[in-house]
Amino acid sequence: MSSRFSRENPEDKPHKRSSIRMGMKLFQLAPESENVTPYATFSKPLRLADGQVELEATLDKAVYDRGEDVGVSVSIANHSSRNVRKIKL
Asked: Where do the record's region annotations for Disordered lie (predicted)?
């Protein structure tokens, strides 16, 4: 809730009948015409090995509603001669 009133001095307090209280909710509208799914690609060269490890993450859609599950697909490609033992996401 937000409360606002007009005053001449900073010490003035509002009277209940001359103040306004209102609740505000923020929302955004997204255009539905775009069918582009967001993605990100990251590649990292490994030390003491030839090649690199590539990680690509894609979302299943571009816009989500509040409370909706977000589906993420992750693909990892190892183009190096070493084995990758652990990956943190």
From this structure: 1-22
